[in-house]
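Render Putative auto-transporter adhesin head GIN domain-containing protein in 3D.
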Amino acid sequence: MCIHRLFKEWYMKWLVLLVLAVASSVFADDRIIYAADVSGEFDHIVLQAPITVEVQQGEDYKIWVKTPPLLRDNLVLRQKGKRLYVGWKADERWLNMVDRDSVKVKIELPSISVLEAQGSGNLYVGDMTLNNLTYNNSGSGDAYIGNLVAEKISVALQGSGDLEVISLAVSRIALASMGSSDISIGRLDTQDLNINSAGNGDITIVDQSSADSADISLLGNGDVEAMPLHVVSANISLLGSSDIEITVNERLNASVMGSGDIVYGGSPASVDLNQFGSGDVRAAGEDNDS
């Protein structure tokens, strides 16, 4: 019995030392860089692994991986048709020792149509000129996008991962948020803007921006802070406690049911209001009680 206890104590000490050695190996600055095989064209990336993925536009299809040697076999890059899956093996023995920066994948491709994030991995997208782009995030990872020019962009956020964009020049853009994700856009220039939010994430437009028309529907308690956005015509519907700030130049059609407020800048010639509840619709600079 005594021998068994001594062996058990020795084994536990050995196991702790092994775990510490593995952790040291994982996080040591001895990562290897290698080029992954690309078997064909793809324009759809699905990020499922808890890592960092960088996407940039180039003339050909290339993939580079930077990883600790110990984790090389855990990363799975799999192509299926036009889709590239960036995943993690089912054997997750080392997963809890890995942060998002432990493994990095850099992808270069001529064009991309769909980006999907399904876990805790982060996405970094460089400057691109595209036709259409769909970005879906159902996880907790964040996405950072540079300067993007496109015909149409669709964004759907269902988790807690945030989205930050430097600038968007696009004919049509649709933003849908159903979780706690925040969206921050530096500059936006578009003809048609559509926003649907049923969560508590905020949407912010930072710099001077423009849109011909905007249709905005807020059903939760997430706010839209977009006073730098100058819209020719806006249809706004609030149901809940969300607040919105925006600049409208010609026509505003607003409906408020709940406690949310609409504050608008500009001098629209036509303002149509429907109010039910304690919410308010007022021009910027007006007192809340006026």
